[in-house]
UniProtKB/TrEMBL annotation:
Transmembrane segments: none annotated. InterPro entries: Calycin. Secreted heat soluble protein acting as a molecular shield in water-deficient condition. Tardigrade-specific intrinsically disordered proteins (TDPs) are essential for desiccation tolerance by forming non-crystalline amorphous solids upon desiccation, and this vitrified state mirrors their protective capabilities. Belongs to the Secretory-abundant heat soluble protein (SAHS) family. Residues 1-16 form the signal peptide. Keywords: Signal, Stress response. Coiled coil: none annotated. This is SAHS5.
Amino acid sequence: MASVILFFLLVGVAFCGVIHNERTAQFEGKVWLGKWESTDRRFNYEAFATVLGHGHPGARDPHHKNFIKFWKEDDHFHLKVTVPEISYKMELEFTMGLQSKSTFNGTSFTYTFSEDGDILKSENFIPSRNLTIFDTYRVNGTEMEVHSKVGDIESTRWYKKDIQP
């Protein structure tokens, strides 16, 4: 959504069939790797969810706790977003700088992750809506700030790091 993390949460991407292998998962080496739990702190999140539409879990209820989990396996990374209260789960695999494609409910989209120092960024494009969503994941200690932008609407949501990934 989405910060692609939020992009996918925001556009409602469903579980994409990527399997997490606990034995080979790496959670160290990047400050954003690990499991993150949303806090009650957010800015303009409801307006952002509204722009993205009814497929966005936040449009249903922006107060649901959601969890973001990043890990590395071999030369690629994984992103998993869950919202347990509404049985929402999504998982994506990505390689830095390479564009990937996926489909949700018949809607195709592309996404690309990149890094700027310790900051993770994603650019997401939904061709059928001519909609580009930019996400930035910035970590400060045990807090992650996820800033999302679509058009002139911006949103920020904060997460706290879970000690157990």
